[in-house]
């Protein structure tokens, strides 16, 4: 009797231990779960450090360009073309996957169907070359931004962390790529919320329930690193703007329609122009780079350098009411951004698009004199950028966070971004980055073909051996 009571108690204790152990493991996670979290968090901290260094290097590069261009503007008629030729030569020789913005590459490789491109697109040499060549482009006065490349570099670093850690769950790779790309946005702009929204809106196809919390923590950690080194700052400063009265909204919508249409047209011509120029770029890349370099230098000479670089300085001056907008500068920057992209050099369109939107908004102050000038500039930035990328939430969140989080202007930014996106879709049915990603994969299909051929040969050899 006593023995049966003891045996029953032991069985109950053992059952309690098993059930409690399972519950504890569900709460705390397995060793593999903590390994995954460590990869995400350490990778995010590394991304923050690297992107902060990238930001410093790019700012120093453009400062050197500004100083040299103010002293010897005509010298860039030679420097810019030769420099672009050197960048194209290095890119084609060392890492062709570093070309362009970098966001199309990230969009492509996070899909499981294109996992075979992850190696060539997300290697460390590609990330290093992306940083160095983007800074070189800014040093030469090319119209590029560092934010798209930051997405590419962040995704590459996180992917490499996962590769080194040998995580067992293969599906985690996609989440690492998303986290790295979004952490790149967060660190580049010092805007963690923008990084989270970018991940959800632009890269949402790879969001998984089991890694969403870890992914968001990674984005925040990369922002914290930037905060530690650069301090709390707003990318474009903190402009003086107040809430917009209801009677101003018809003017806001009108301005948004114009900017959204121009943004959509920019995306349309960027895609169609890239397709038209692609055969020539493949056949004679150096000549194309030289011609585009000459045109960019001439435009910079005429505009006093206003169409060259990322446009960060000009946009910040407009928001601080230290400069006046110009239609010529706005359209010049749009054209310069497009031409620079056609050359194929590494560099993004984020900052140039925001700067072009600021110029458009500032130019409209003469059309709507009763509307706050600063508010129109912010609306121009949000609506033109939304027209280009067709991601309205990302557009107004980025502009809001980059200009001091003044929530008085939030309703106007939301309305402008949504209106611009609707208008943009009339001329550009699909988001530009997704179209560019699909165009990009065609130039790398030879890798898939060779891989399939190798698999066929391997299977044939196995069958013969048997």
What does this 3D model show about the protein?
Helix 11 (249-283) runs parallel beside helix 19. By secondary structure, this protein is mostly helical. The longest helix has 41 residues, at 31-71. The protein contains 20 helices and no strands. The termini are far apart. It has helices at residues 2-28, 31-71, 76-94, 103-109, 118-121, 124-140, 147-165, 172-189, 192-202, 212-230, 249-283, 285-303, 312-319, 327-343, 350-363, 373-389, 392-402, 410-427, 432-442, 445-465.
Gyration radius, to the nearest Å?
A: 25 Å
Uncertain segments of ≥5 residues (pLDDT<50)? 23-28, 453-458
> Number of helical segments?
20
What string, H for helix and E for strand, traces the elements in order? Answer: HHHHHHHHHHHHHHHHHHHH
Structural class: mainly alpha
Report on the biggest sheet: none
Cα distance spanning the termini? 65 Å
How many distinct beta strands?
A: 0
Question: Percent of residues in beta strands?
Answer: under 5%
Overall 3D shape = globular
What is the residue-mean pLDDT, rounded to a whole number? 82
Helix content: over 70%
């Amino acid at each position: 009797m006593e023995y049966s009571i003891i045996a029953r108690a032991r069985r109950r204790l053992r059952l309690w231990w098993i059930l409690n152990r399972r519950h504890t493991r569900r709460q705390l996670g397995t060793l593999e779960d903590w390994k995954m979290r460590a990869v995400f968090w350490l990778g995010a901290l590394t991304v923050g450090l690297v992107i902060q260094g990238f930001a410093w290097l790019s700012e120093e590069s453009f400062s050197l360009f500004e100083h040299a261009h103010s002293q010897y503007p005509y010298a860039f008629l030679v420097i810019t073309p030769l420099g672009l030729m050197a960048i194209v030569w290095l890119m084609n020789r060392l890492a062709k996957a570093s070309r362009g913005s970098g966001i199309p590459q990230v969009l492509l490789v996070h899909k499981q169907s294109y996992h075979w491109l992850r190696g060539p697109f997300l290697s460390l040499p590609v990330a290093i070359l992306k940083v160095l060549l983007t800074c070189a482009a800014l040093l030469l006065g090319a119209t590029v931004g560092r934010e798209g490349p930051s997405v590419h570099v962040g995704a590459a670093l996180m992917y490499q962390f996962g590769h080194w850690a040998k995580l067992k769950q293969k599906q985690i790779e996609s989440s690492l790529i998303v986290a790295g790309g979004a952490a790149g946005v967060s660190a580049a702009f010092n805007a963690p919320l923008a990084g989270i929204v970018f991940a959800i809106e632009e890269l949402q196809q790879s969001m998984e329930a089991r890694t969403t919390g870890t992914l968001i923590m990674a984005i925040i950690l990369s922002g914290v690193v930037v905060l530690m080194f650069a301090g709390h700052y707003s990318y474009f400063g903190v402009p003086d703007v107040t809430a917009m009265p209801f009677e101003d909204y018809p003017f806001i919508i009108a301005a948004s329609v114009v900017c959204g249409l121009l943004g959509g047209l920019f995306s349309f011509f960027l895609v169609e122009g890239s397709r038209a120029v692609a055969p020539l770029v493949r056949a004679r890349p150096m000549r194309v780079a030289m011609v585009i370099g000459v045109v960019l230098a001439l435009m910079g000479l005429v505009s006093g350098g206003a169409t060259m670089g990322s446009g960060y300085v000009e946009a910040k001056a407009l928001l601080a009411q230290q400069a006046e907008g110009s239609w010529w500068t706005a359209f010049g920057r749009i054209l310069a951004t497009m031409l620079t992209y056609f050359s194929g050099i590494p560099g993004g369109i984020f900052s140039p698009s925001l700067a072009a939107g600021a110029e458009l908004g500032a130019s409209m102050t003469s059309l709507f004199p009763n509307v706050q000038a600063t508010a129109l500039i912010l609306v121009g930035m949000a609506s033109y950028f939304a027209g280009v990328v067709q991601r309205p939430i990302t557009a107004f969140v980025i502009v809001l966070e980059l200009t001091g989080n003044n929530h008085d202007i939030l309703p106007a930014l939301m309305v402008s971004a949504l209106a611009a996106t609707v208008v943009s879709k009339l001329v550009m049915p699909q988001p530009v980055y997704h179209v560019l990603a699909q165009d990009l994969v065609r130039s790398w299909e030879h890798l898939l073909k060779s891989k399939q051929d190798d698999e066929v040969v391997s299977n044939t050899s196995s069958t013969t051996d048997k």
